[in-house]
Amino acid sequence: MEAGRTGRSPGAAAVTVAALAALALLAGGCTPAAGGVRGTPGASGVQDPYFPRLGNGGYDVTHYALDLAFDPAAGRLDGTARITARATQDLSAFNLDLAGLTVAEATVDGAPASANRAGDELTLRPRDELRRGDEFTVTVGYSGVPEPLTDPDGSTEGWMNTTDGAVAVGEPAGSMTWFPGNHHPSDKASYEIALTAPTRLSALSNGVKVSADPVSGDRTRTVWRQTEPMASYLATVMIGRYETTTGTALGDISVVTAVDPSLSAATAALRAELPALLADQRERYGPYPFGAAGAVVTADGLLGYALETQTRPVFPASSFDRPTLVHELAHQWFGNSVTPESWQDIWLNEGFATYAEWLYAEDHDGVPARSSFEDAFAQDANWAFPPADPPAAENLFGPPVYQRGAMVLHKVRETVGDKVFDEILQGWPTKYRHANASTEDFTAYVESVAGEGLKEELAGLWKVWLYGDGKPAEP
Ligand code: ARG
Ligand code: ZN
């Protein structure tokens, strides 16, 4: 989706494309098409400062239709990805991100395309070049035993096989372990995810369940539809033994929760609070951005963290508590609807979700946000680096991103006052609903709402709290 894109480093991307074009010329790879118009290969990454090869240039995905058959006994996935995209340049070839697995066949607009693998890049060369503005359809047939990735920070993400099923989570890069795509958050798309698995197991994904039909061999094909745009890192799959509960929230939002059966009783009370927590957040952040909601609680030992997977956040049992639930639900507005333009903007996700915990404590537990702020201020770990400039990929989920990110928001609140701050809490997710936003978009937005009179004070706030090294003298 183009909406809200700001193009962080157009210069770098252009250089890459030009360099690739020059290489293609040297290699004598393509001959000019009739009329002298010729496409060039799309870039193999969008030059994200932390993951330069993540995502791909030259096209925008609008829709993923994933048809995934999973055999838990063998841990094997057989997939077909049908991707609808629009070319943003004349293309002779383009890339998809895919880690592991074996590609058996690929087509572009129904015609066989040549496929090459190198590292996590799958390069497809269509029979006919694509013209800028063309809508095209790619199918990729693939299979294998998926393997998770180890993040730069040491945690595990991607497709994880369990004793009787699988769980897939993808922040920041794990989704490329189970489907080929444009795996950078700047390219959001709608999804339909079909899961074929043994009938005795539950098969869950994002959004609304549209059908569940028996297929041969005691298997069921369950189809989930995520209509609103989603960044690929928020796509999820859970296949296994779960106790599922369905209901509604906020009037007509369909709620599906699923828990490992051994956790049924222990999690019942908090699961039942989900509609009330969403109603509470809607008061503060405006309309809930999706047509579906829910939560999944897995047995401990698999996931090292909770994740805000779109419409259906997932929790290891030991982190299914109220503050974490509040945090992951707040991400539905902050991160899932308003998505970072680049991984450098991750504090916009984690700072807001942490501040949502502070607001919850202020509203319900008699703990003013100011005292949460002072607690965070006192902790050395929060001063390791500025939230808007993590030093490396391994720091993207470090304490300053969460806690100092929330501190920035609290300083904004103290600068503009509660009334304008409440306006920002609704206005920011409204302005960038289902789009991408950067740190600069945020500071510009706050300055525009606060007015000229506060511009200088806000500039000082950004300099010290958002971008500055080290701890200020005063909280
Ligand atoms: N976004 C998750 C949260 O709600 C954390 C994801 C952690 N991922 C990682 N690779 N460390 O806080
Ligand atoms: Zn978070």
Report on the structure:
By secondary structure, the protein is an alpha+beta fold. The chain folds into three domains: 202 residues, Sandwich (Immunoglobulin-like); 81 residues, Zincin-like, CATH 3.30.2010.30; 129 residues, Neutral Protease Domain 2 (Neutral Protease, domain 2, Orthogonal Bundle). Helices cover 28% and strands 30% of the residues. The chain is built from nine helices and 23 strands. The chain has an eight-stranded mixed β-sheet with strand order 6-5-9-3-2-13-16-15, with no helix packed on it. Strands 10-11-12-17-14 form a five-stranded antiparallel β-sheet, with no helix packed on it. β5 and β6 form a beta hairpin. α5 crosses α6 and α6 crosses α7. The chain is globular. The N terminus is likely disordered. Bound molecules: arginine (ARG) and zinc ion (ZN). The site of arginine has 13 residues, from α3.
Low-confidence stretches: 1-35
Number of distinct beta strands: 23
Strand order of the largest sheet: 6-5-9-3-2-13-16-15
CATH arch. level architecture of the largest domain: Sandwich
Number of helices: 9
Q: What is the chains' assembly state?
A: single chain
Structural class by SSE content: alpha+beta
List its salient traits.
475 residues; alpha+beta; Immunoglobulin-like; Zincin-like; Neutral Protease, domain 2; 3 domains; eight-stranded mixed sheet; five-stranded antiparallel sheet; 9 helices; 23 strands; 30% strand; binds arginine; binds zinc ion
